Amino acid sequence: MITARAAATFEPVGRSVAVARGFVRDTLQGWGLGEIVDDAVVLTSELVTNAVIHAGTSAEVICLREEDTVRVEVVDHYPERELPLHDAGQPHGNPDREGGRGLLLCAALASRWGVDYTAADKRVWFRLDLPERPVGTRAAGPALPDAALPVAAHRVHVAVIQVDRGGAVGSWNEDATELFGYTAEQVVGKPLTDLAAWPHTPGTGTGIAEALQLSRWEGSYGMRDTDGRTVAVYASHLRVRDSDGEPSTVCLLVRDHERAVLQSPPRGHGGDGDRQNGREGQTADPFEVFIGSPAPDDLDGLLQRTVERARDMLDGDAAYLLLATDDETELEVRASTGLPSARQRFARVPVEAGSGRYGSARMPSVHEDLTVVPGAVPLLEGTGMRSVVIVPLKVEGRLTGSLGVATESPGRYTNEEALRLQFAADRIALAVERARLTELERLRRGSLSFLVEASDLLAGTLDRNQTLALMAQMTVPTLASWCAVYTVAEPGSEPALSYVLHEDEERIDSLKALLGKVDPPDPVPAPGARLWTAPTDTAHGSALRTSLRSATLGVDDDPAPGSGLATAAAVGGETVVMPLVARNRVIGMLVLGKPTDERFRQEIIELAEDLSRRAALALDNARLYSERTAISQSLQRSLLPPGLPEVPGMEVEVIYRAAGEGNEVGGDFYDLFEIRDGGYGFAIGDVCGTGPEAAAVTGLARHALRLLAREGFAGPAVLERLNAAILDEGARSRFLTLLYGELWPQPDGGARLEVVCAGHPLPLRLRPDGTVEPAAEPQPLLGVMEDLELYEQHVVLEPGDVMLCVTDGVTERREGTRMLGDDGLADALSTCTGLTAGAVAARIMRTVEHFASVPLSDDMAILTMRAPG
What order of strands is seen across the sheet that includes strand 679-687? Predict the structure, then answer.
């Protein structure tokens, strides 16, 4: 059952995402659901971004309060654009794909989520479960001395007004009569909007009627009394429903200077400060927090609202606000209105830059005509602004920022306007500083979390290409709009463009083509980020040629993806290069860029530098691993026979599996080679242990067998000399089980074999009638005793017979206490009558794999020979 509902619509502009976050935060906090606010705001931000930025339509955000959950819906009007869902077969998604991250957040944070399509819109929704709450105190303040208590009249009047769902007054208490002069009979049944003097601010569409529909609201406005005067009040609205389910709103109102009676939590300004400044009884300050204002910790929203109100207060054409950086040595552009803010956002200038360049940042200043003193305010150059007033933001005497209002007319502002703006700046300075410090703390925590996650991801792979992809995907769009990674193969070699990523996937190819036209940045090992203007200059040159061609030929110059204009817009902002230094050499460069006229924040640059150091080491580790893997695989391949020869009149098949990740050869080995005309040697063996040490003995045994057999030695002599060679290895020697034999195909079909089984699992012969029997007898293994007396055994394969030779990795396959064993192998072989040698080997391999669910833990070799029937 839905117990409360709130909805708002946002235009398809970037600012709407922040406003939508504030709407959801205010709504859920108003419902007293602070525990889920952060998760809801994160998910709303992602979904509204998809709607207003990617889908390009307005978005409606609907908050629904249910009994045990909260449901938030984001509706856009572009149902044709499908959601970028990840492939179900790839749980972590394609590393080259950027879309769909918001939906992964829904899956991670929400208890349930989904999407509903209609012919006109698309509705993405998520649910968050409400935590169980113990009964207790929601908030309490400390005990204060009497002198610290807020001052109020000896008789505080609290007007209690109840308004029905249509906005009409339903009840009016005696204190309301005392405050405003109206009796209950005069106002009951009339709309409250007739009495309320609601503040209006450009860009804010919420009025008293909308505020009365919210579940909870708190703030300042005015009420007209019987004399027509406006009484400034502080109000708390609570929406309730009676036993019949009929909703209404209860409004508690006090005089604005007595706000401490109702205010919770304190706003950080107003209250006593009004009385100390002699402003008791005046209407609300232009910078007062009211409906539609951002939350105190929403710094960007607070700054944007500040410059808008400053502009309106002085009837200016533009306004801007700069904040001091973390070390307070520079001022950074953080908000503006009426100016190309994207071009200057996060631009920095020193606090004391000399005469005419913010040199007066610590004191109010008025420029009556900027054309008389060119360059006095660099931010306003080329904007057409003539007159400007600038005041500092100070907290406890410390410069924290600067606020300016400008107009296109000269001589508009005087010291009187400077005093008014300074007074407003003093009112907002503390709230701005609190929000700035909160943002810095949040950035620090977010940076630590980001670096921890990045380190985990980079440490989780040793693949070079995947490392390059991770580097780019971690920076775009979190740190930059686009990213490129250059790699340097050897010291002194030319950097190569290895990976390119843009937040708009349609621009990746054009960006790659653009970077291919410019010389790569120099691989300078000096730490820190440096500016790189080549991509921006080249993009702007291409855009200029496109515009000239359009003007000359009269063709359409719309910035379609891939065009010069589109590329210039995509990479036209600030571009920085950070060296990737690992083990005292430059192995590449990480390039980050912004779209048209945007700049990087210093905190983002510092975070990117930290990331580049971690990424460089991960990339070099991947390089070293790739090199060593290639060397290891090359050496391992040399231990296996290059291929199986064709044996006339016989079918031969081999299946080989080495245990361990990345191993191609282990302690098991096999071989089949021609001894002389008409005769072939074959071997299958098992060196004690696995890994490189066992592989070394494998190489010794295989090459020694070939050499000795081709010298004409018989099987026992071959193995006795191999035994001596193994013992000569001393401490590096390992014992070896080996089945060696000579194969002589016969002209009338079948084959004759001379076999020596030195400690190895016995070969099995399968007859056409399904009979399975050992084809040799066991003899001592190699590498243990010096004097061995070995002998050959003669085996005749009749047409249709199969000889199966395996290593102990087959017979010792285990599942708990069960083992396949010799009997299990014989049973499996008995089912292979009539099959080819390859089919027999494949069936035995499937039997081994299906016998246990755990991966193979031992090397395994299977050799089958069959005399065709």
Answer: 668-676, 679-687, 736-745, 751-758, 793-797
